[in-house]
Each structure stands twice: as C-alpha cells, then as structure tokens.
C-alpha cells in the first residue's frame, strides 16, 4: 500500500515538473511548443536550480571570496584564450572556463578540482567511489538544458548540501578519483535526454534475481575395446524422424513468436524522439590509462549513476572540452557521429587544443609534480590509516577494511611512497624558478574535502534514496536508519508504469533475528526468507505462503544442527524431513497424515517412511534402504538395498498383531507375522528368536519415530510464533566494535577511564614510606629521640643488607646445584656413550648457568646502587633529624 | 585357585552341553513367546558361556564359526586348543584354569580381550598375530621374567594389562619397569597410570629402552626388506620370469654339475666362463624385461575386459531393475482401486495382473538372453586376444631359449677344445705343477675328458629345457584356468542365478492374487 502512495506522489511531481518545463521552453523558443516532456519517471528529488545568491559571504573562507593575484593572472590568460578561441572558431559554442563560484567570484574550472583521498577503503576504487557519489548526492537538472550553468560551486559545498548538477557531480567525483591515483578528467559535452535527466527507467534492473542453473551432466568416457554390442532397438526410424520434424516445426514457431514479442517490447521501450537531441549539455568523467596500472583503456564514468560507459557509448553525443586540475583541452575532432571515433591522446595538438602549452621538459616535470602530489596524498592517507591502525577504537565501522589494507601494504608501499616523495620534492624547487617562463596553475582555492564517518555511513541524502529502472523500483536505505533494519528494497513490476507488483525483495542488516533477505512473490503470494547463520534454531531459509492449504519449506544449516536436519517440507497432510550426514545414514523421513475435516491439535498418522543412505560397512542385502511404518495397516515394510548383481531388492514385511498395545496380552511369535521376498540366497537367515526381537525393536522404533514427528510439529509451531514475535520486536544488533552505537561499551569505556584516573591519583598520593614499619614497631610515637633514630637507621640498613645477602645466596645455591647436575649428567653420558642428547643438554645447562651468573652480577650492582640511595634518603629524611618529629 | 585335578570328574564338551549353553542365553520367559528352533544353528551363535563345568579339553567348538565371545573360565583346561576355526572371536576368557603354555591362538587375529588370569603360565609367547589385542589379563600366573614384559611391546593397541600376582610383580622395580617398557598401556593392574611416574620411569630406563628401540627398528627394517623381496618374487612369478633377473639360471646350470665344475679348472676356462656368463646373463635379462612387460600388457588387457564386462552387466541389471520398479508401481496402482479387505481381487483385475506378470517375465528373460549373447561374444574375443598374447610370449621366449642353447653349444665346444689342449699338454707333461690333483685323473686320456664334457653339456641342456618347459606349462595353465573360471562364473553361474531370481520374483508377485 505504501508503495502505491509513493508512486502516486512521484507521478504528481512529474506532472507538475513537466508543466514548468513546457513553460520555460515556450519562453525560449516558439518552435519547441510541440515538444512534450519525456514520459518518464524522474527521481523526485530533482529540482530546477536557482541562480546562487550567496547570503552569508563571511562564512566562507577567504579563498572563496577573493581571487589571489596568481588566480587573477590565470583568469586574464583564460579570458585571452577564450577570445582567441571565439575569434578563430566562430561557429563553435562557448567553453566552460571560468564560472562563478558560490560566492559570485569567477574561478577557473581547473582550480576548482581539489584532488583528495579520504580514509575510507571504499573510496580508493573508481567504481565504488562513483557509486558513492551517485548515492550521496541528489541530482539537479541544468536549466535550461542547452546552456552551460553560470555557476560552479566548490566540491565542499556540494558535499555539505548533498545536491548538485552534472558539473558538480563530475567535479566532486574527479577530485576523489585523481586523489585515488586515477588519470581522471572532467568532460563537458552533450548527451542524450535520458542521460541528462538521469533517467534509468529504460535500463534493465541491475539487481536481477539469480536463476538457478541446472548442472551440466558429464558424459563419461570409457574404453570400448571389449564393449558389448548394444541391444537391438525395435523401433521405426521413420517414426522417430517424423516426430523430430514435428518437434522442429513447433520449436520454430515458438522462436518466431518470441522474436515478434521481443520486437514489440523493443518498440514500446524505445524513447520518444527528442527535439533537443544533440544540444543537451552534460558533464561526465573520463578515465585514461596511465594513472593506475589496472586501467588499460580509456572509458567514461557517468557520475550521476556511477556506471562505467565505454569510450564509444552512443549516449554521449559530443565533447567540447576536457580538463583536470592541471590543464584544459578543447576537442578539435569532429563529433557529428557522437563520441565513437574520438582519440584521447591529449598531447596530439591537431586533435586537442590545450590551454597551457608546456615544453616537453616542463611536461615531464609536471607529471613528476603530479606524481609527487598524489604521493603526498597517499602519505597523508597512510598517516591517517596509521592513526586508525594504532587506535582502532576511533575507526569508523565502515572502514575496518581500510586498516587491514593499510596493514598489508603499509610496509611495502610506504617506503616506496616516501622514497618517491622525498626524491621528487627536489625538482619542485626548480619548477618555481622557471615559473616566469611558463604559466603555472595556482593551487586549488577549494578547502580540503572531508566526509565524517557518520555521513559516510548515512551515504544517501536523508539516509535514503530511490532509483527507478525498467519495471523496477529500487529503494536504498542507510544501515540503522530504519527500525526494521532494511537497507535495500527492490520492487519489480509487470508494467512500465510501475503499478502491478510482481516481486519484492527486501534486504536487511543488523537484525537480531538474522533475517537477511525477504523475497515476496506477489503473484504467487509466497514469501521466501533467508537468514544468516547464528540463529538458535539454525534456520537458513524459510519459504511459506498464505492460505488454508499451506505449503512451508524450512531449510536449515544442517552442520550446526544436532539432528543434521537440512530441509523440512510441510503441507496439510504431509511432513517430510531431509537429512544430510546423519549418524544413522538417515536421509529422509516422510509422514503422511490423515486428512481431517475437523481441526484438532494432533493429526493422526497414516504412515512414516524413512530412507537411509548406503552404509558401506554392511552387505547390500543387510542394509536397509527404506523402512515404512504403516501405522494404520499395522505393518512394517523393510526394503533392503539392491545387490549390484540383482535386479530386485529384498523385502521383509512384519505384521504387527492387532492387539499389541494391550498390556495384558502376551505377544507370542508365530510364523504368520513375517513375510519375506529374497532376491538371492545371500540374505541372512534369521532365527525365530531374532525375528521376534526384531519386531519388538521395530515397535519401539515406531514409537520413537512418532515422538520425533510430534516434536517436529511442535518445532514448526514454535517457529511460527517466534517469527511473529521477532517481527514485532524491531531492535537492531550493534556490533561490539561499533563504539558510536554500542551504549554498553560506551559506558564501560567511561568506567574504565574513571578507574584508571583514580588509580593514577591514588598512586600519586602515597609514595613509599620505608620508615613506616619501623616506627609502627615501636608503637607509632609522636616523636623519638636521637638514640631511637639511630637504632631505626641501623635496623633499616641491617634489614636491607640481610635481604640482599639472602637473595645473593639463593642465586649462588641455584648456580651450584646447576653445576653439580651438569657434572653428574656429563659423567653419566660419558659412561653410557650417548652423544646426541648430551650436546643439547650441555648447551641448555650452559645457558642456564650464564643466566644465573648474569643475574648475580646484576643483583650486586643493584644492591650497591640501592644501598647508596637508601643511605642518601635516610640522611635526608627530616624525621631522623634534630626535632625527631615522626608524625 | 584352580581346582584340584583329582577331586572332580572331568566333563566332555558334548552336544547337550552346548545346546544347554546356547539356550541359557535366552531371556527369562522367552521360551513362552518364541517357539524353539528345531535344530541348533551353530553359525548364528555369537557368544557362548561354558564356565564352572569342569571341562578338561577344549573340543567340539569348531562349528561356531561366527562366535565373537567365548567364556570358558573356571574349568580344568590344561591346553589351549581347538580354536582355529573361531576366527571372529574378539573376547576370550580362559581364567581360572590349569593352562601352562600360551599356544593355539595364532588364527584369532580379531581378538581384543584375552584373559588368562589364574593359570600356570611362565612365559608370554606365541601371540604375535594378535595385533588388535587391547586388554590382556595374565595376573596370578608364574611369570617371572623381564623378557615377557618386553614381549608385550609389540602390541600397539594394548591399553590394559594385569600382571598382579606373578612372581615378577613382587619385585621392587616391577611397576617402574613395566610402565617404562610398555608406553602404549594406559592401565596397569586396572589402575590408571599417571604422567609423572611414567616420566620418571622413562628417565630411569632411558638407555635400555633406547637400545630396545634400535634393535626393534632394525628388526622391522629387516622384516620389511624380506617382505618387499617376497612381493617382488611373487610379481616375477606371475610374469613367469622368476629367478631370471640376475645370474641365477647360469649358476643353477653348474650347481648340480660336479664334472663340469672340475672342467672349469682347466687353464683358460675362467676367462671363457666369464665371457659366456656375460652373454648368457644379458640374454636372460632381456627375457626377464620382456616377461615383465608382457605381464603389464596382459594385466591391462584383463582390466579392460573386466571394466567392460562389469559395465555391460551393470547396465543390464539397471534396466531390469527399472522394469521391475515400473511393474511394482503399476501393481500398487492396480490394487489401489480394489477394496482388498472386503471382497478381494475381482476376476477382471486378476486376469489383467496375470497377463502383466507374464509380460514382465518375458521382458526380463529377453534382457537376460541378450546379456548372455553379449557376454559370450565378448568373452570369446577376450579369450582369442589373450591366447594370442600368450603364444606371442611363448614364441619370443622360445627364440631366446634357442639363443641360450647356442651359447651353451659354443661354450661346450670351447671347453672341449681347451680340455683337449690340456690333455695333449698333460701327455707331454708340460702342465704346471699347480694343476689340481683331484682332476688330474680326468685328464688321463681323451675319452674320459670328452665323456665328462658330454655329461656336463647334457646337464646344462636339461636345465635349460626344464626351465623352458616349466615356464610354458605354467603360462598355458594360467590361461586355461582363468578362461575356464570366466566361463564358469560369468556365463553359467551368473545366468543360473539371474534365472532363479526372475522365477522367484514372478512367484512372489503371483502369490498376491493367489492368496486372495
């Protein structure tokens, strides 16, 4: 229900938006009156941007509000370039060179890029970074779509506002990608309406459900030397041929119908023609090989969606210019065929007109400098990671991988990076000296970019975001943002207007009940839930439906269950358990219940069938394959395994006497109770006595089996009620490493801190007082006389000496013992002529002796030092001086 | 203590006694509910108690082939005997008897518990085959010997030993000696051995045990080598080239040839012998290699054959099983409609079922006949191929034997020449004094020496013939037995079994309608 509402509101929004669109277009061009806005669904957060009116200039740093001298120099240079360009290429559109920033100051686009690396492992790879940017921002359309924007905000502002147009997206993403070491450029050009509107409704759903693949059967090869002749087949070849022909025609017809259907679908899905085709302005990212070694060819990244696009993608219709933080190049190649034949060798002056011409030497130095810059970034990152590594409690949860990355690579990379960095910092100076010859770009005016861990984890603006794809709606939520722990909801629809639900998939995280995925098949009205390991009942999957004749399947983690249950399937009159690696070779137990008209708690059982795996230690004729407790018929039917040389399996049937349950009845054996079919003579002959005990055993087993069935039924009922409870209680689990959320650990940490503080204080308070025991020995008098003071002094020194001597003696005696033992052992070994152990033992003994010697020496030195200290202290102690006031 | 011999009349293990013993195993009141069997089934008995019966001789037990537990304590047994057929025995109690020697246990390889408590045993011996021995009780005996304790070292699975009441156990260092020498046991005299005393004891006897271990290792090494050699020999024997890997055949030629050995003392003979031996051994060695290679190809052929035959059999069996399963399915469906309890089978259904049964029988029989045809053909091909291989082997070997004979002829000629020369020189008295006395008379005249050469040559030739005949007769024997066995097992026995099974199945299924 909720989803439908959302849909409605989006529809309305689209409608209102389209009205605005039409009006604006009317103003601009009369011809566009017949243009209709695309009948597509646009993300509801898209708003037409108003020209920036900066209200509080003072809040921005100085570099935002003013241009430095160097920047002004650059701007004049750029202006010069623009004029020349305009003069030479009059028919070309104007370039995106120096838009205003959020403070209304013109800034050169190259200086707006701020290469940054952030301490999140997710932001070191281009695909993850692009996805993050696409998720993190809301998209604003360009207004009008065929004109360059007047302003280009700083990436810092985009990060805080969390929305922007395609240039803002590209700018922010390019800053991060260059920081991550890619050779990335912002591209200004033209794209189709779908790209410009961020309209993904024609793209297939990226979260396609996996279809179960059927395992391919392998044909076994074998030696055929003595292969027997195949049996004669007595069927008509003509019939088979005709049958095959018939099948073929059916198949062909099917293919034909399928093709027609495909054509029809393609017709529906084709976008309507766009009057502004080819003039819609867009900005995106180009990655060239060279930055990181894994990039082997140039490709685009669409910043609004985070998708990779090939360099000849038909959605991009032309390129005006590309730039990075160092230079800007204007495309001189023909774009009438879109971007299909463009070359990206930016040094080729015939194809790319660059803004700053560098001599070859300069170019080299520049690349060197660029390298050193990224290196310095990397060093920053390493420093940060080092901090996190050493203080793991400060680490944001999402970033645990990063430290491990750091840990793995730190030693290797760091030394390299440092080496390169310090090496490259030398030519930096030479660049400065040559600055007056070539124009050098000033540093970026943008403040360092930063994303707080909290914001990084929130990921989406206001913690959630909705995407539309072909017949699919994807809703994404940040972890912990919703009470039920939902992070991803994928709704699949039957129609293009997204009204007929067919399948909804929910992904959850951090739930107490370990629910991970819930799939709701709306057409069939069945629900499939998947759980992570760790539940008390070891549930792995739970498939159920609604309705009077229910059909439930429970799949368990069989390795953690004591009864090795792997799957349980229940319907109204059947209950089937499947086991894997059961101790008794049991694989299967099926219960058939009587169909009851009235509802009662216990369904009566018609039969229980147990199947067993082959027990390799038994003969096939003694190994039970199937055991049926036909409870209603009072029978036990045992089917043994078929011997490899036999065509039938042996069957033994026991008939339970009808009054077996009567306690007064003495159960007597007679031969009618037993019936056997023997496949061959190998079956063990059983005496009457054995048979009698066998039937008694089977009766007991039957009771046991019934008991198990009842517990299974109870377990199912328990599961249902527990699931209901779990659905109601919607607390989320918090990892013990997550210090932001884990209240308990917070409290505990504070307590710990308090305790350590207290301990510290206490330690500072009482310093060791060695006079105390001696004064206490004479009854803690207020003051003493000189004689007693002398006495105390003497006692202290004596005790200290005794203690030292005692310790020295102890070490000495140990030493002597060791020597004695060594000698006896050596003698013994010599007598017995064993040399191997001798050496080793001798080595060890020597080692011990060495240690003891060292200890003795150390003790001597320490004692001397300590004695001196003691004497000094005693001499300085005021209590042993003239007034002799002890307290 | 064992009872006195004279005081009691010894009893004999009789049919009645055994019957009683078996029946006494039954639970109380069981006779009421389970009728007695008509005949005593010896092989069905798993455990037997024959205690307190004054039995003197262990006899008449050989029928209990599946016995796992036998109690014969508190008798007056003097010798352990008659247990050879009870190979599944795991538990044997012979305590409180008058046994003096351990013997007759060699075949009881499964034995884990053995009690010989309170007997008159002085020596631990004759138990080497009891590899699985776990509990051994030898208390209250006359064991007074360190070697007996050492003897127990060879039982790797031994965990519990009782030695109490022996003269040896009253010695002061009995405990430490035992736990040091038997590191595998956990319980001595039914008491758990702690770690600390064990370590102490090990330290005390460290050197002796070290020596013991080295000798044991050496013995083991020796055994292993002998075993390997035996296996190798077996392999050679299966390739029909045993004793041909070195110069055994050559030495064998001269072994029984006393005359020839004398002839070899002729000057110049040793060079000749060395020369001939080299050639001879080279030929024999090629034969040996060839034999091994042939065996390999034969084995491969046989493996291929069995793989294919088994596959064909499995496939056929599987098909038949599918047919039977389908029929059973059909049967349940057919009878599900009928109300069996009330009216029984209606005649229409019975007739249909009967037809279906006949059909089933025909189908199964057709399959079986097809298989018989298939197998017959394959077996014939196999027989032919193998026969070719054997004849190939034989021919090649025969050619080599021919070479050997030629070599022998050459050798004979040369030695005759040497001898004749020697005789001539002897005649001229040119021979050295070193010429050995014992053969001087051989060289007295030409005829004698030629006769001697003749006999020697004959002996050598007969040796070669003997070896050749043996090889050929054995390989042809091997071939015929194997082929006969295949015919017997795969064609006749298998077919008979299958036919019996089919008819049994049909009877069983037909009984369904006949009952009703």
TrEMBL record, chain A:
<dbReference type="GO" id="GO:0030317">
    <property type="term" value="P:flagellated sperm motility"/>
</dbReference>
<feature type="coiled-coil region">
    <location>
        <begin position="695"/>
        <end position="768"/>
    </location>
</feature>
<dbReference type="Pfam" id="PF24671">
    <property type="entry name" value="DRC7_C"/>
</dbReference>
<dbReference type="InterPro" id="IPR056292">
    <property type="entry name" value="DRC7_C"/>
</dbReference>
<comment type="similarity">
    <text>Belongs to the DRC7 family.</text>
</comment>
<dbReference type="Pfam" id="PF01841">
    <property type="entry name" value="Transglut_core"/>
</dbReference>
<dbReference type="GO" id="GO:0030154">
    <property type="term" value="P:cell differentiation"/>
</dbReference>
<feature type="domain" description="CEP76/DRC7 peptidase-like">
    <location>
        <begin position="282"/>
        <end position="355"/>
    </location>
</feature>
<keyword id="KW-0966">Cell projection</keyword>
<keyword id="KW-0282">Flagellum</keyword>
<feature type="domain" description="Dynein regulatory complex subunit 7 MORN">
    <location>
        <begin position="461"/>
        <end position="735"/>
    </location>
</feature>
<dbReference type="Pfam" id="PF24656">
    <property type="entry name" value="CEPT76_peptidase"/>
</dbReference>
<keyword id="KW-0206">Cytoskeleton</keyword>
<dbReference type="InterPro" id="IPR002931">
    <property type="entry name" value="Transglutaminase-like"/>
</dbReference>
<dbReference type="GO" id="GO:0031514">
    <property type="term" value="C:motile cilium"/>
</dbReference>
<feature type="coiled-coil region">
    <location>
        <begin position="842"/>
        <end position="873"/>
    </location>
</feature>
<feature type="domain" description="Transglutaminase-like">
    <location>
        <begin position="130"/>
        <end position="193"/>
    </location>
</feature>
<dbReference type="InterPro" id="IPR033551">
    <property type="entry name" value="DRC7/lobo"/>
</dbReference>
<keyword id="KW-0221">Differentiation</keyword>
<feature type="coiled-coil region">
    <location>
        <begin position="243"/>
        <end position="270"/>
    </location>
</feature>
<keyword id="KW-0963">Cytoplasm</keyword>
<dbReference type="InterPro" id="IPR056290">
    <property type="entry name" value="CEPT76/DRC7_peptidase-like_dom"/>
</dbReference>
From TrEMBL, chain B:
<keyword id="KW-0282">Flagellum</keyword>
<keyword id="KW-0969">Cilium</keyword>
<feature type="coiled-coil region">
    <location>
        <begin position="350"/>
        <end position="392"/>
    </location>
</feature>
<dbReference type="InterPro" id="IPR050576">
    <property type="entry name" value="Cilia_flagella_integrity"/>
</dbReference>
<keyword id="KW-0206">Cytoskeleton</keyword>
<keyword id="KW-0963">Cytoplasm</keyword>
<keyword id="KW-0433">Leucine-rich repeat</keyword>
<dbReference type="InterPro" id="IPR032675">
    <property type="entry name" value="LRR_dom_sf"/>
</dbReference>
<comment type="similarity">
    <text>Belongs to the DRC3 family.</text>
</comment>
<dbReference type="Pfam" id="PF14580">
    <property type="entry name" value="LRR_9"/>
</dbReference>
<dbReference type="GO" id="GO:0005929">
    <property type="term" value="C:cilium"/>
</dbReference>
<dbReference type="InterPro" id="IPR001611">
    <property type="entry name" value="Leu-rich_rpt"/>
</dbReference>
<keyword id="KW-0175">Coiled coil</keyword>
<protein>
    <recommendedName>
        <fullName>Dynein regulatory complex subunit 3</fullName>
    </recommendedName>
</protein>
<keyword id="KW-0966">Cell projection</keyword>
<keyword id="KW-0677">Repeat</keyword>
